[in-house]
Specification:
The protein is an alpha/beta fold. It contains 11 helices and 10 strands. The protein has an 8-stranded mixed beta sheet, with helices on both faces. A two-stranded antiparallel sheet has the order 9-10. The longest helix is centred in the first third of the chain and has 24 residues. The protein binds nicotinamide-adenine-dinucleotide (NAD). The site of nicotinamide-adenine-dinucleotide has 22 residues, from α1 and α4.
């Protein structure tokens, strides 16, 4: 099965990026959001990003000005904004990138399961919920996968393709091929908490926070150690500030509730306290560091 017609539900931070890379990959894409303001904003971000890519291609001599402009027009022409779920009926694939709330996602998938053509594949971009639960809610678990892209979608090269016990082999293969057509490198994951990346990354962030809380080392030294000792682009505490302390706490609380016996899943005291104080990381100007734009202290 070849995926040609794509729908993306949710045109926020992740959704607009998925719309863009799918269109760049040659797919015909419907970008859907229930909030028309959010939809307009998402489309504007795509247009800005395409213009930037085009001017870079000209600058580097890869394309002439006319070729670059024609490319932007072609990609943009493949994107149709919509606020009507009925427009998704004929889609080969619908990727969900709405708010991280399981009940709202399940409700959406029940509706998509009824409306999208029977052969259509449904996918969720969730970072923390079990794919199997949404697959069940959709009424078509064999045609359901996780497609977990990374932020910023246009730049990050990975997509985790998640299959449940019920996912058909051809559905999984088609989802993988879609990821490749979007210019990403797919990795296969089972439906386990955090898939591959977050299952390794979040407990690592927890260890770093607890190391700081115990006073074993300063935040600067913990970060420098992982940057220079392991070659990571940023240390774990800087990373936590970038991800957002609220997002990190949300993921951890979901996991500790679902998997109370897993010792790697626990909430460090300072994380909860800072979130209670509204210190959510870079976006609020304070987390484990104080931030002024990109400068931290
Ligand atoms: N932010 C990240 O770094 C990141 C990374 C990977 C995966 N994710 C996952 O991607 C998903 C989206 O996250 P985001 O950061 O883009 O959120 P966001 O808040 O930026 O965007 C969500 C969009 O969905 C729309 N929406 C909400 N409910 C809807 C509905 N029922 N129908 C249609 N549109 C609806 C909202 O209007 C909003 O525009 C979440 O599941 C999140 O866990 C996020």
């Amino acid at each position: 099965m070849k995926i040609e017609k794509v729908g993306v539900v949710g045109c926020g931070l992740m959704g607009h990026g998925i719309v863009q890379i799918a269109a760049q990959g040659g797919h015909e894409v419907i970008a859907l959001d229930l909030d028309s303001g959010a939809l307009d904003k998402g489309i504007a971000r795509i247009e800005k990003s395409l213009a930037k890519l085009a001017s870079k291609a000209v600058e580097k001599g890869r394309q002439s000005e006319e070729e670059a402009q024609a490319w932007v027009r072609d990609v943009r022409a493949r994107i149709t904004p919509s606020t009507d779920i009925e427009s998704l009926r004929d889609r080969d694939l619908v990727v969900e990138a709405i708010v991280e709330n399981l009940e709202i996602k399940k409700k959406l998938f029940a509706e998509l399961g009824e409306k999208v053509q029977a052969e259509g594949i449904l996918a969720s971009n969730t970072s923390s919920f079990p794919i199997g639960e949404m697959a069940e809610a959709s009424g078509r678990p064999s045609r359901f996968v996780g497609l977990h892209f990374f932020n910023p979608v246009q730049l990050m090269r990975l997509v985790e393709v998640v299959r449940t016990e019920a996912t058909d082999e051809d559905v999984f293969a088609a989802a993988r091929a879609f990821g490749e057509a979007c210019g990403k490198t797919p990795v296969a994951c089972k439906d386990t908490p955090g898939f591959i990346v977050n299952r390794l990354l979040v407990p690592y962030m927890v260890e770093a926070i607890e190391m700081l809380d115990r006073g074993d080392a300063s935040k600067e030294d913990i970060d420098t150690a992982m940057q220079l000792g392991c070659g990571y682009p940023m240390g774990p505490l800087t990373l936590t500030d970038y991800v957002g302390l609220d997002t990190t706490l949300f993921i951890l609380e979901g996991w500790t509730e679902r998997y109370p016996d897993e010792p790697a899943f626990r909430v460090p005291a300072s994380l909860r306290q800072k979130v209670n104080e509204g210190k959510l990381g870079r976006k609020t100007g304070e987390g484990y560091y104080s931030w002024q734009g990109d400068k931290k202290s």
